[in-house]
Structures are given as C-alpha cells and as structure tokens.
Design a protein that fits this description.
Layout lengths: L4 H13 L5 H4 L11 H7 L5 E7 L8 E7 L17 H14 L1 E7 L1 H6 L2 H14 L7 E5 L11 E4 L7 H24 L5 H4 L5 H10 L16
Parallel strand pairs: 1-4, 4-5
Antiparallel strand pairs: 1-2, 2-3
Helix pairs in contact: 4-7
C-alpha cells in the first residue's frame, strides 16, 4: 500500500513529537543549590573513587591550557565548591588551599607550542588525560567537563556538559586549574612585562591586543590563534 507525501510528513512529525528526551538533553539540568555529589555516587558507588577533571585557558591568546583532576574525600568536601568563574578571586584562593589539603589532586598543562602543533581542543584533552593518569589514587571512574572524553584514560569516563555547575569534583578541578593558570601567568608577567599578563592572564583584552601590535608576539603567544595567525 502506498502513501502520499503528506502522510509521510505527518508520521515523521508524530515521531518527532513523541521523541523521549535524550541523556544529552538531561545533562543541562543544573542543580538549584549548586554542584553536588550526586553524579559521583551514581557513577562511583560502591567504590567512590571518582575523579573530576576540568581545564582553564582554552580561549586566551597566550599561555598554556591547564587541566586538573581531583578525587574528593566524600567525608571532607570543602564548602562552597562551584564553577570557578562564579567565584571571587579570594574565594578561589581559599578553596584552592582547602582542596589541596583534603583531596587527591593532579595538574597538567599544554603550552603554546603544543597548542599550535595540534589545536586547542586536542591540547586540552591531552592535558586532562595526563592529569587524570597522574593521580596518586587511580580513579575507577572519571567525570569530564564538556562534550569529550580524552583518549588513553586508565579508567572509564563520561563527559558532562556544564559539569562544573553539576559535580563538586569537576568544580574542584575547575578551581585548581584556574588558580594554577592565573599564578603561572603572573609569573610569566615577570619575564614578559610588556604584555600585562598579570592583569588579563593572556586573554584578548584591548590592552593585550595593543601590546601585541606595539611589541609583537612573545614565545607564550599562540600563533595559531587570530589575530596572531597568518593565513
């Protein structure tokens, strides 16, 4: 029995209308009270050795991308963990110290040359892979902020969109990565004072762009990024 094009379109419309929400769509459900330990329990019970991983510095024109991996002690989780971008610098610094004192933490980075040889996505994932594989306690599961899971991990893992707003382990990793990178860029400012890295951490502010025009690029600049890239 044949059917008309209008019948076919009607059936397709009904199938779309009754489609169940995908797991990917559910990833955008953000806990009202901030990140919590629910994902760690869901993916880690009963062993509970679940690591969170995040990075800082994908967007700047200069400096490394820094990744951190954190296994929190479920009985000693610092209060106030959240996406590092939502915290004041003073709060990040305080939580940075609390996380280091209470959790298993590993940090890795990919510098400008690494980023330029591959691309920022690959360099970020590679840094997260190295951080996760460097933890003192090998995790039995990992929660990765974003859409991608790094290749070469020693444990199963899943990507969590907006993970730093959903998982305290990822939030902790975001704080470690952000504070570490900011400190690296402050030290870089001592070596390359003309660029003001201590103020903008390598991001494309107007002052940073003008410094590049005035002084050219330094070894920390990502030459594959616009406006530095020469096509």
């Amino acid at each position: 029995m044949s059917c008309s094009p209008s019948d076919s379109r009607s059936r397709q419309s009904k199938r779309r209308t009754h489609k169940k929400p995908s797991k990917q769509e559910n990833l955008f459900d953000i806990p009202a009270g901030g990140p919590n330990y629910a994902l760690e329990i869901a993916d880690g019970a009963p062993q509970r050795l679940v690591a969170g991983a995040d990075e800082a510095g994908r967007g700047p024109l200069a400096g490394p991308v820094v990744a951190a991996a954190v296994i929190l002690d479920p009985d000693n989780i610092p209060d106030g963990l959240d996406d590092s971008k939502k915290l004041t610098a003073a709060k990040r610094q305080k939580l940075f110290e609390l996380i280091l004192a209470s959790a298993d933490v590993a940090i890795a980075s990919s510098g400008a040359n690494h980023i330029d040889r591959s691309d920022i996505r690959k360099a970020s994932l590679d840094a997260m892979r190295r951080a996760l594989n460097s933890l003192t306690q090998p995790p039995q599961f990992a929660l990765i902020d974003g859409r991608d899971v790094p290749a070469g991990l020693a444990c199963p893992a899943r990507a969590v969109i907006k993970g730093d707003a959903r998982s305290v382990s990822i939030a902790a990793a975001s704080i470690i990565a952000k504070v570490t990178r900011d400190r690296m860029m402050e030290r870089a400012a001592n070596e390359f004072p003309a660029y003001g890295f201590e103020r903008h951490a390598g991001y494309a502010t107007q002052a940073h762009r003008q410094a590049i025009i005035d002084h050219g690029a330094c070894p920390l600049h990502r030459m594959s990024f616009r406006p530095l890239r020469r096509d």
